[in-house]
Amino acid sequence: MQTRRTASENGRQFLATSGTYDVESVEESTISKYGLVCQDAWLDHLSFPVYVMGAVLVTPAIGALSDHLGRKPTIVASAWVLFCASLCCGVSQTFALFLAARFVVSATTYACFLLLFILLYEVTGRERRTWLTFVNTALPVTLMPRVLDVIRLADPGWKVMKLLFVLPYLALALFCSRLEESPTWLLSTWKMHRAEQVILAASARNGVNQNQAELTFRLLKLQMKKREDASMTVATLKGGAAVGLAFTGGRALSVALAWFYLLLSFYVFHLPPETNGVFWAVTQMLLQGLLYCSIGWFMHIRGAIDALSMCLVLCGVLALFLAATTYDGRVTASSLLTLLLKCVSSVGFSVNYSYTAEVFPTAIRSSGMCCAFIIGKFGTLSGGLLTSTKKPLTLFILHLTMAGLALLCTLAVQWLPVVIVAKKPEELAKALPVSLMSEEQRKEMIKASLSPGCTKKDPKRRKQKSRREKRHCWSPGSAASFPGRRARPSALRNAALIQRKPPSLRWIACRSLGMRQTLFQCASLLQR
Questions:
Q1: The organism sits in which domain of life (predicted)?
Q2: CA 99, CA 85: separation in Å to the nearest integer?
Q3: Looking at the domain covering 41-179+234-415, what would its CATH class be?
Q4: What angle do CA 54, 58, 64 make, to 5 degrees?
Q5: Domain segments of the chain: what residues?
Q6: Can you give the C-alpha Rg of the chain in angstroms?
Q7: φ and ψ at 49, to 5 degrees?
Q8: Top-ranked range on mean pLDDT: pick from 138-142, 187-191, 208-212
Q9: How far is CA 29 from CA 39, 154, 161, 497, in A?
Q10: CB neighbours (10 Å) of residue 21?
Q11: Are 456 and 514 in contact (CB under 8 A)?
Q12: pLDDT tens digits, residue range 308-356?
């Protein structure tokens, strides 16, 4: 409701020709609470860029702290800072303090969500990881808009609504305080004692035999030590060098492009005011749920790369149809296509979370994922700037551009270096340690180890044979030095042995590693 009133600020009188709120309901919105009218009206438009820049500037630093200090302390600190900042938003008396609090809320909100997703990704097994991580990102994207619609219909008031958001943040902080550290991160940073404590505690809670858990951890620790002795891996790199190494790869580039396009397509297309009813809200929720189920099943079978490519292709096709309907002026078809495009973009978020977590190794997963996500937030800013476009020709060009960007991102995901696809069940069974194998798998392993093709030669006989060869050593030039003598067959064999190239270090390491693994498997079988 527009009104004419006179406002004062610091004793200075000025005439306000128009307002954007009812003077009878003061302090029921940000505009009315802080008087963002007349020459201060531009401050209301500043709130959204400040909120986005909070995530852009601070979240990568929080991700780097998570890689350096650990997942749990970073998550707990971010959750409590988020609670304090949200409380400050509700009780702030000046707009500057309100903006600063929203800046902190934005940074810690995205940091908590990303780090909790990484923690869930690292503590779940490969066979359940796809569905758990997918559901973790699908529920808030699908349900939270409907919860906000219910709160908006209830109209509790500005202060009550701020307090309603404070309570979930308090519950989040209390919940995060009871989390355990990621054992994957502890192993990657060689905190073996702490990792063993976390793994044994988790096995006790899940009903796993403690002896099996201890034996499995010993085997895992032995394999990690062998890898460390063999070569320097990416997981041992530190700080910015590792982040730079990961970002030079094509996989990180494809991740960043996918994030940018998905966030841009989600924010650049807005539904018209006619679609704010209950029918369109229920339709969007049903379509989004159906897309989540179908694409989640497809990702479980084919992997995150193909699922992400499917989402990008669907976005490109829908953008092409939307360009045609917008140019012809078909409002209903454009609204339906826009709704479908927003649903596909939301599903693409969940797929891209899993794809990003697979791309980066454990030691730099938080830094890489936060940086890739923040690159995508520039798509959010671009989408917010392009929402003011209303002309049909401009919208037609914009939709064609979005279709071209979808094609570019799909090519980047498919043609750039791909991530490792999940192993098949039979390959997972072969990779299991002995303590976790079934009785039939152990029998098959023993039969394979006792087969004639896998029998090892006696080292004593090999040593005696090498001594005999040294005793009857013959040089290749000895036959030439005695032209009248004829070389014996044994001497020719010795010459062939001398001329043969010595075995490489890689061959020796593989042979010794195979023998040691067989010995440890036999020892574990005897212990059982």
A1: Eukaryota
A2: 10
A3: mainly alpha
A4: 155
A5: 1-40, 41-179+234-415, 423-455, 458-478+487-528
A6: 32
A7: -60, -35
A8: 138-142
A9: 18, 15, 10, 89
A10: 20
A11: no
A12: 999 999 999 998 888 888 777 777 787 888 888 888 988 988 898 888 8
